[in-house]
Amino acid sequence: MKIFKKTSLIIISITLILTSTVFAKSFKDTRGHWAESSIDFITDKGIMSGYNDNTFKPNDNMTRVEFYAAVNNLIGYDKTYTVTFSDVNTSDWYYGDVAKGIKAGYIIPTTGKLNPERDITREEVAEILGYVYSLQQKASATNEFGDRGKIAESARGYVGALVEAGILRGYSDGNFYPTRSIRRSEAATLFRSMISNYNYPQKKALNNSKIKFGSRDLYE
Predict the structure, then answer these.
(1) Cβ contacts of residue 124 below 8 Å, gap of 6+?
(2) In sequence order, what are the beta bridge partners of 183?
(3) Which of the four pLDDT bands, split at 50, 70 and 90, describes residue 25?
(4) Engineered SS bond to 186: which of 15, 84, 130, 182, CB 3.0-4.6 Å?
(5) Are 117 and 63 in contact (CB under 8 A)?
């Protein structure tokens, strides 16, 4: 009987620990959210993070620098390059992530402005992910969209690749809306889909890349 009680206490203790872990993993504003499982998955992997008040703000638009930070976490970029943007200062929390993005090749350095806290667009997201994953471009897959001509030429092939893979989709009106912002919950789902479809990209592939990213500037 004593052994039984002791075993029961151990099982109850383990159950409480596991239950606490599950609840601690979720943010107070993501419980019941359509992207809750993706948000939990991505934050558990350390790719994205929440805020100090235990919120994730899933319906907020994602900024460029938030996306850069997530990409750097996804791949494990740790090498940096000189930052010359006039609106990025060494005291900014994202300075290191911008420096890593420049070194990796998905941010083109300039003495102009980066507009780091501007919302990132759907086509920018596709172009960066396609670049760091070295995806084979498939521009023809964008022909289904009525606004395909509005997709930047440098992004079109990567948009098509992700559309063909079922990771990105258009809207019910037949358009893609390349310059629309994406929400943090959508980004978490997108990152999870990229990992599921393509696994984690190899850190060594682009960490010391000297390839110029695309044919347009992402900071315009």
Answers:
(1) 64, 67, 155, 218
(2) 61
(3) low
(4) 182
(5) yes
